[in-house]
Amino acid sequence: MASASGCTRSGRTRWAGNPTFVALGVLSLLVPGLSAAQAGSGPDISSSRPSILLLSIDTLRADHLGLYGYPRPTDPNLARATGSFTLFSSAFTPMPLTVPAHASMLTGLHPRDLGLLNNHQALAPGHPGATLAQRLKAAGYRTAAVVGSGVLAGELTGLRRGFDIYLDPAPGKVATRRTAAEVNALVAPLLEMGEGPLFLLVHYYDVHEPYDVPDRLACLLRADPALEDVLLQRRLRGVAYSKVLNRRHTDALRRQGREISLREMLALYDAAVRLATDQAARLLEMWDASRAGPGSLVIITSDHGEGLGQHGYWSHGMNLFDETLRVPLLVRWPDAPLASRRQMGQVSLLDVAPTVLAAAGLEVSHDLPGRDLAREIASGTGVTRQPLVVQRMRYVPAQRPPGLRNWRAGDGFAVLDGSLKYIEEEEGPPTLYDRAADPLERNDLLRRFPGRRAQLHQFLAAWMARYPDRLIWPPQAVDPERARILRSLGYIDR
Ligand SMILES: [Zn+2]
Questions:
Q1: For residue 205, how far is its CA from the centre of ligand 1 (angstroms)?
Q2: Would you say residue 322 has pLDDT above 60?
Q3: Residue 28 CA, ligand 1 centroid: distance in Å
Q4: How far is ligand 1, taken at its centre, from the CA of residue 97, in Å?
Q5: Ligand 1 centroid to residue 242 C-alpha, Å
Q6: 11 domain-assigned
Q7: Domain count, the chain
Q8: Nearest by Cα to 62 from 418, 415, 438, 344
Q9: 326 C-alpha vs ligand 1 centroid, how far in Å?
Q10: pTM of the entire structure?
Q11: For an engineered disulfide with 329, which of 88, 94, 156, 464 has Cβ 3.0 to 4.6 Å away?
Q12: CATH number of the domain bearing residue 354
């Protein structure tokens, strides 16, 4: 990571306590794969179906984008590029963890329904329902994915199915990450290949630790005085980064021999957001200039947010507060009338699959819990708020990290009902927050509203009965290659 005086030198900024990033020069290696995929003769393609771009910017908190009111310059270029998009102001992940959240995006099913509650698990071969890529491929789409992290390794996660091309930085490769610029470089040749509509999944990983950003950006975002206001508003001023991490990270910091402030890390996170949003704007430019661009459906979102020190936690997956659950969701529709409208209703990543399928003219199964957002908006009343259940990572008691506050064993669920959020976990008492009056979710209202508690508990119980737990539990041994990738990305202890 750049020191406080690092703004005078050139080069890249990264946190030395994290895995080594190795740049890939893989573009030339792709040509055989591309040619092979191109050679396959698919079904007849309907030219009336729109091409579809789904961009997932990993770990991107909605409220760290200027588009969502953030006072710092994290997304000026993306904001300009998405002026005609519909912005969903209350979008949430069904689970704040990378693999389960992406599996939900690509199937329309809740992680619980998929039996997929951790990053080292995979979409079971016999899971209910086809993936978006499978459905679209069967309808004549070319299907391609370029992902920025080995955590989404196609074969190991099962997410590769249905994609003609799935470019991941794993397994068997030296690096397990790609920068957004490298992802874009891999996307470019895909845009003009083959005939007919294209479904393209793009995944950026730059906003995920260790924030490998150029010093130019790190310095730009560190110098902004609004950073102090953000820390003050969140009551995080003076907090040390090491106080909001688990021991693995803290040990890495200790080896560096210095204390890093939350302010420094927040500035780095924002710099990574700026890097990713700049590349997203570049991707949109490329997309629109390609054959796929005109009349296409474009969706920009994230799989989850990041704690950034709130509730004593930096990362994601462990708790159910809005800083890890709320994600950006921006949609540009194939048809102009739905553009330029801010939608306040509560939506989720579960709505991505029905929205994509409907735009492609495909049937949306009634079994899917999500909704076609275009249809919702076209109804004239806007997107209606519906209670949404979010699940966090499931922990066995032996995983208890020393020194981390607010960690609870077992399962945890939240019911998001308008401004209210009810949290029920296997360990510890339930809690209730009113996010309109208490956006930082600090004041538990449960005792004041016992009737509401009973109502939300019943809703959750009915939901759990409707979606039985499909997880194979306790977890089975992790595939060694998968373990290597996850370890290199910092997900599991050495
Ligand atoms: Zn993620």
A1: 8
A2: yes
A3: 28
A4: 5
A5: 21
A6: yes
A7: 1
A8: 344
A9: 13
A10: 0.89
A11: 88
A12: 3.40.720.10
How many angstroms does the Cα of residue 15 sit away from the middle of ligand 1? 18
Average pLDDT, the chain: 84
Q: Is residue 471 part of a domain?
A: no
pLDDT of residue 3: 41
Sequence-distant (6+) residues with CB within 8 A of 1 are: 13, 14, 15, 16, 210, 211, 260, 264, 268
Cβ(104)–Cβ(111) under 8 Å? Answer: yes
Neighbours of 294 (CB within 10 A): 11
Query: Residues lining ligand 1 (ion), CB within 5 A?
Result: 58, 98, 303
Cα 461 to middle of ligand 1, angstroms: 28
Cα 58 to ligand 1 centroid, rounded to whole Å: 5
Residue 68's domain spans which residues?
6-384
Look up residue 284 and give its two tokens.
């949109």
Residue 258 Cα to ligand 1 midpoint, Å, equals 28
Q: Is the pLDDT of residue 17 over 60?
A: no
The whole-number average pLDDT for the span 350-368 is 95
Give the model's pLDDT for residue 277. 98
- Whether 326 maps to a domain, the answer reads yes
Q: Is residue 405 part of a domain?
A: no
CA distance 358 to 366: 12
